[in-house]
Design goal:
284 residues; alpha/beta; 2-enoyl-CoA Hydratase, Chain A, domain 1; 7-stranded mixed sheet
């Protein structure tokens, strides 16, 4: 019976992955970075990466999980956790409903357990298609519950961030999630459990100022914008020209904020190696 459920869940993940692989265009797609055209099939086979310049298109949460987790190992956590409208913000409920219909998601976060090269872990993903991956109270709660699940079951935690920051329609309740997720990660760290944070394009605002920056190991996808305020805001505030590549993943790695910039095609193998090294270190 368990094998039947495992196969059903694997098929569900595969279907969601296909739906989420949303590289724009028809037969040919134009890269927004280099401007060159590529066949959609070639881009999709390359995990939504431009074959000419290496630009990484944003990808959906379920699709990202399918590129990382072992087939059939996906088990979603708190799948039905709904968003709320605590401030009765004008038009917010309608926009939530539209985002849900457009993406098939309940909220901007997907959390799950699974295995990477046979090693069990907890994985969270922010999906930038849903309100730009912004952190609502529901998103903060889902991330916190995933952290607490990892702590309770002594499992390594991996979170892929892609966010425009706190969700303004929920005001202070959204900002409170910064403290809540950070406190949960502090408890996880006290137990000596590994947390790997992966920053994707873009990771900004309150997410950067909380759980995205608290990893024991911080990885980033190439070219990802990483920061609190955006570069245009900073440049206008200080009245100075910013260095080339400012706030991009490579710049952040050079200045010590990111441990390594890892292309999408190598992300699964990199995570598998880190989990293996952590597992061996724990036994030692």
């Amino acid at each position: 019976m368990n094998s039947i459920f495992a196969k059903r869940r694997a098929r569900l993940l595969a279907m969601k992955a296909i739906r989420d692989n949303y590289v724009p265009g028809d037969k040919l797609v134009t890269c927004p970075k280099c401007g060159q055209e590529s066949e959609r099939k070639a881009v999709a086979e390359g995990l939504s990466v431009c074959p000419h310049c290496g630009y990484h298109w944003p990808i959906g949460g379920y699709y990202r999980l399918s590129t990382i987790l072992d087939p059939g190992s996906f088990r979603e956590l708190n799948a039905k956790y709904p968003p709320a409208d605590p401030l009765s913000f004008p038009g917010y409920r309608g926009k939530l409903t539209a985002a849900q219909h457009r993406t098939g998601l309940n909220e901007a976060a997907v959390t799950a357990t699974g295995t990477i090269d046979g090693r069990k872990c907890v994985v969270g993903v922010l999906d930038s298609r849903f309100f730009m991956g912004s952190m609502s109270a529901a998103v903060g709660e889902k991330i916190t519950l995933a952290i607490e699940y990892a702590a309770k079951n002594k499992l390594p935690l991996i979170i892929f961030s892609a966010s425009g920051g706190a969700r303004m329609q929920e005001g202070i309740l959204s900002l409170m999630q910064m403290a809540k997720t950070s406190a949960a990660l502090a408890r996880l760290s006290d137990k000596g459990i590994l947390y790997i944070s992966v920053l994707t394009d873009p990771t900004t605002g309150g997410v950067t100022a909380s759980f995205a920056s608290l990893g024991d190991i911080i990885l980033a996808e190439p070219g990802a914008l990483i920061g609190f305020a955006g570069p245009r805001v900073i440049q206008q505030t200080i009245g100075e020209t910013l260095p080339e590549g400012f706030q991009r993943a490579e710049y952040q790695e050079e200045h010590g904020f990111v441990d390594a910039v890892v292309p999408r095609a190598r992300m699964r193998d990199t995570l598998a190696q880190l989990l293996m090294l952590h597992e061996k270190g724990g036994r030692a």
